[in-house]
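Build the 3D complex.
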Amino acid sequence: MADIKLMKGNEAFAEAAIRAGCDAYFGYPITPQSEVLEYLTAQEPHKRTGMIVLQAESEIAAINMVYGAAGTGKRVMTSSSGPGISLKQEGISYMAGSELPCLILNVMRGGPGLGTIQPSQSDYFQATRGGGHGDYYTPVLAPASVQEMADFVRLGFELAFKYRNPVVILSDGIIGQMMEKVELFPQQPRAVEFDQSWVTTGKTPDRERNIITSVDLDSARQERHNQDLQKKYQNMREHEVRFESINCDDADYIFIAFGSASRICQKSVKIAREKGIKVGLLRPVTLFPFPAKEIKKLSKQVKGMLCVELNAGQMIEDVRLAVENNTLVALHNRMGGMVPTPEEVYHALLQKFSIE
Amino acid sequence: MAKIKGAIVIDVERCKGCELCMDSCPTDVIRMEKKVNGKGYHYAYMENPENCTGCINCALVCPDAVITVYRKKFED
Amino acid sequence: MEKENLRLDEIIREENIVFHKTSLLTDKVFSYCPGCGHGVVHRVIMEIIEELGIQSDTIGISPVGCSVFAYDFMNIDMQQAAHGRAPAVATGIKRCWPEKYVFTYQGDGDLAAIGTSETIHACNRGENIAIFFINNGIYGMTGGQMAPTTLSGMKSSTTPYGRDTMLMGNPIKMTELVATLPGTYFVTRQAVHTALYVRKFKKAARMAFENQKLKKGLSFIEVVSNCNSGWKMSPLQANRWMEENMLAFYPPGDIKINGELIKKT
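Done.
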C-alpha cells in the first residue's frame, strides 16, 4: 500500500532523508528551512535507523561536520537558506576539491544580505556556478513539488556517490513551506553500496593510508587534479541532464522556469492554450547540468521564449547561451518575495512578444 | 663492575643542525660537524662517544626524529 | 681509540636499540624549520598510537598552518580541515565513528583565532575527541604575523613595534578558557623543548587517547612551542626565550583532570 501523507516540503525532505538511509544530518536554524531540523529532532531518527542529527553552532560548523562525516564514506547532509548557504560555501568548496559526496538543501529566500524570509530564486547563480572559491560545479536539482522534495533526496545521494561530489537541492520558501500530498518511498538500509576504498576508517596494514585533502602545492599535480574534476563535470553534463517538457511539441512560445515559478507557468500555459495560443513549458530539473541542448532544439521551432524567474533574471543567461540567437528570449521576473500570478505571466507573454 | 654504555646514530642527511640534541645532552657527547650535509646543515655527531650513557634525551628533543639510541651493559 | 671503536661496534647493534623513530612516521623529511617543536609533537603522538596499537582505529585532522601537511608525515588516515574548522570536522567523523580515535592538530592561529567558535563548542558539547593545540604565539606559515596568543609587547611582522594591548587586545589563554566548560574532561598545558617536558607531554598525550577509549569527553592539550623563524632567533635562543617569556604567561601543568578543575594552592 502506498504511503501517502500530507506534509510540508521541508518535512517531506526530512522524512525522505531518514528513509533514504541518511547516516548523519548537521544543521543550523534559518527561516524558511528550520522545519528540516525540527522534524528530524522530533522524529529521533537515531531510534528509527541510527541516523545522527546534530544542531551545530553555526552554518560553518555544520558544513565542516558534514565534510568530516562525508570523509567516513557515510550518507551525510545539511540544509539552510541563502545567508547560511553563503557561510557554507567554504566547506562546499573543500568537499568539491577533495571529492566528497554529500547533499545540501538550499530553501531559497530573497536577498541580498539578510534580505527577506519570503521565497525567492535568487541563489541560481551561486548554486549553478559552484558557489564558493575555485573552479568547481555541483549537480543542482530544482524540485517543483513536495513530492520532489522527497524524491530528490534519494536521487541526490545517488548522484553524490556516483560522482563523489556535493549535490545541491535548490528549493525555495514556497516549495519548502507549502503542504501537499506526498507518496513516501519505503525505508532503505543505511549501508552505502558505493566504493568505500577511499574513506577514513583508520589505516589497516593491507592498504596505504587514506588522506582526504584539497591542497596540493605542486602546480603540475594541481592542474591535473583540476583537469580530472573538469572531466567529471563534463561527464555530468553528458549524462545527468533532467528536464520536464509540457506541451512543447507544437508550441509557438515556451515558458522556461524552474521550481516554484514553473508551477505558476503551468497554469499560464493552460490559460494561453484556452485562448488559442500554443504555449509550452520547459522546466529544467537539473540547473547544473543545464538542459541547454533541449532548449537549443526548441529555439529552432518557436517564435519566442519567456524566462519566468523569482529573481533579477539569472537563469535567462543560461537560456540565452543555449539559444544562440535562434529566437527571441525575454524575461518576466519578480523579486524580494513577490510572486507573479498565472494571469500576470500570461499577460507578460502577450506583451513581450506583441501577441495580438 | 657493570657499566652502562650508550651510543647514538644520526641520520645525517635528515639532520637540520638545530643543536637541540647538543644542548640536551647531560654528558657532553654531541657536537655539530664542521662539514655540512646535502641540505647544507652542520649535522650532529658524537664528539665524546665514551661519555654516552644512552639516556635518550637527545632523541626525545630531536624535532626531526633522526637519532637512534643504543645502550648496552658491559661486565668489566 | 681502536678499543673505543670496538666498543661502539658492540653497542650499535639492533638488540641494543633503546630509541628509534616510530614506524608511524613516514620517511618524508619534516617540512618544518630546524628546531621547530612540531616534529617532536608529531613524533610523540605517533609513538602513542603505535604503543596503544590503535593505528587502524585512528583518524587525525590536520589544520591550516605550518602543519597543514601533517598527513605527509603521520602514517595514519587523515583529513585536512579548513582554517579553524578542525573541531567541527572531528565532530563529524567522531559522530559517524564513535568507536574510533579522533584527534585534531591545530596551531594557535587556527584554534585561538579563526576557530574559536568551533573549538569552544566542540569542547562544550564534550565531543569524545582529543585536541592538540600547538601555541607558538605567532602565525608561522604566513610569515610571522601577530596571533591572538602573541604576548604583550612581543614583536611580529604585524606588530613590528611590539603588541600594544590597548590597540590589539590581550593574549588569549584558550586552555584556561575551555577548562571552564563542563564538556572538557582533561585539560593540560605542556611543552616539548627539553627531554623532561617531552616525557611529561607523552604522558598527557597517552591520557588523551585513553580517555577516548573510556568515552570520557574531550581532552585538550596545549603545547607551548617555539617559532624560531618567526621570532627571528636561533633554535636554542628561541627555546630560552620561550621558557622565560611564553612559559611565564602560559604556565605548564594540568588545569583539569578527570573533569575536575585543579585548585591552585
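The two ends of chain B are 6 Å apart (CA to CA).
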